[in-house]
Write a structure and sequence with these properties.
Blueprint lengths: L4 E6 L5 H15 L3 E6 L11 E9 L2 E2 L1 H9 L1 H4 L3 E8 L10 H7 L11 E6 L1 E2 L6 H9 L5 E2 L3 H16 L2
The structure holds flavin mononucleotide.
């Protein structure tokens, strides 16, 4: 039997979600799955894939519009495929508040278009250096704190956890 084909696709503003997607893709490839890692804006078709992993960062509590539009655009083709979604952000590491429910809720913006089998949330990364003027202002107003909350072990563990499910599709 040929290896299952997986698309790991992602939206990003500053590259962190791309890094996460690459790491997830590396785990899936290492486990024998035939994996492509492609930004949402560059995906040309999804017929060939058995499973699709979609990733987005959170900005002001929401997924990026490109990630939602990918789901909208490919809705008919995503039907029947096994779909996982991950989001990342810095709020996961905020002290003293239960930040997981709102992060998971942000994924629901995709729900009208796709049937999601698996959801994940990861810590992200924020550096004020290199932000657009608008993002800098928003981050300052929101009181966002710079930091690298990316935990490669977490996302590798999650990726390992979906290997068997995708292999058995
Ligand atoms: C203006 C702004 C708003 C943000 N809003 C959120 C948010 O609502 N929740 C969150 O968890 N992280 C938030 N973040 C952090 C980003 O989600 C995080 O830096 C992410 O890893 C960036 O991914 P990217 O480089 O792929 O765009 C925000 C960052 C900026 C600059």
């Amino acid at each position: 039997m040929s290896a299952k084909k997986v698309l790991v696709t992602y939206a990003t503003r500053y590259g962190t979600t791309g890094e996460i997607a690459e790491e997830i893709g590396a785990v899936l490839t290492g486990a024998g799955l035939d994996t492509d890692i492609i930004p949402v804006m560059e995906v040309a078709g999804i017929d060939a894939y058995d499973a699709v992993v979609i990733g987005s960062p959170l900005y002001m509590g929401k997924i990026l519009v490109e990630a939602r539009e990918f789901c909208e655009q490919y809705k008919p083709y995503l039907e029947g495929k096994w779909i996982a979604v991950f989001v990342n952000g810095i709020s996961l590491c905020s002290q003293g508040t239960d930040t997981e429910p709102p992060m998971l809720a942000a994924i629901d913006a995709m729900a009208p278009y796709v049937s999601i089998a698996e959801k994940a949330i990861f810590g992200g990364r924020l550096s004020m250096k290199g932000l657009s003027e608008a993002d800098m202002q928003l981050a300052t107003i929101a009181g966002a704190r710079e930091g690298d909350y990316l935990n490669m072990d977490d996302l590798r563990a999650w990726a390992k956890g979906i290997v068997q499910t995708v292999t058995d599709l």
